[in-house]
Amino acid sequence: MSRPVVAFLVVLVATVGLAPAAAGQPAPLQGTRQMTGTVTVAKNVRGEHVGEVVHRTWTFTPLCATAPCDTVELVRQRANGTDTVILHRTGPDVYVGKGRFDAPLRCTGRIYQPGQVVPFTITVRVTEAGHVNAKYVNRSRINLTPCIGVLGHDAARYTG
């Protein structure tokens, strides 16, 4: 390897927190990423619409001493808070985790805190170039209010 390539790899590791993967080995999932997301589904979710672009900070922390780890902690920014999700490696470059958060819900003129539970799944794929592609999916929500109503669901795709 020539010196310019080595220097570039050192800068790359310092910049994005990814060590170069050995031949045939998956890249480790670690570091803080500025993720850009596009809402792909927004059914009865107040303030969201399909095609909306969002910018979020996601931090990946391996839960083992040597990479790549089978489990990685993800702390992800949301519009009104953060989530911590444990991701489990399901393939060489794929991690999946499930989480949930509480969200307010308006019912008969009153806002309930929490008013609904939002269960979700996040799937993360590390590309050969060290980029991260992710998918967030919420298929249904759980009503915690005394009101009867149809709750929404949403989904988004992220890159970073």
Overview of this structure, please?
This protein has 160 residues and is mainly beta. The protein has a single domain (29-159), classed as Lipocalin, CATH 2.40.128. Helices cover 9% and strands 56% of the residues. The chain has 1 helix and 9 strands, in the order H-E-E-E-E-E-E-E-E-E. The protein has one helix at 3-16; strands spanning 31-43, 53-62, 71-78, 81-91, 94-107, 110-126, 132-138, 142-143, 153-159. Strands 1-2-3-4-5-6-7-9 form an 8-stranded antiparallel barrel. It is elongated, with a radius of gyration of 18 Å. The two termini are 28 Å apart. Mean pLDDT is 85; it is low at 1-22.
SSE layout:
Elements: H1 3-16, E1 31-43, E2 53-62, E3 71-78, E4 81-91, E5 94-107, E6 110-126, E7 132-138, E8 142-143, E9 153-159
Antiparallel strand pairs: 1-2, 1-9, 2-3, 3-4, 4-5, 5-6, 6-7, 6-8, 7-9
Brief write-up:
This protein is mainly β. It has one helix at residues 3-16, and strands at 31-43, 53-62, 71-78, 81-91, 94-107, 110-126, 132-138, 142-143, 153-159.
> What structural class results from the helix and strand content?
mainly beta
The CATH class turns out to be Mainly Beta
- Terminal Cα span: 28 Å
Biggest sheet strand line-up: 1-2-3-4-5-6-7-9
Properties at a glance:
Lipocalin, 8-stranded antiparallel beta barrel
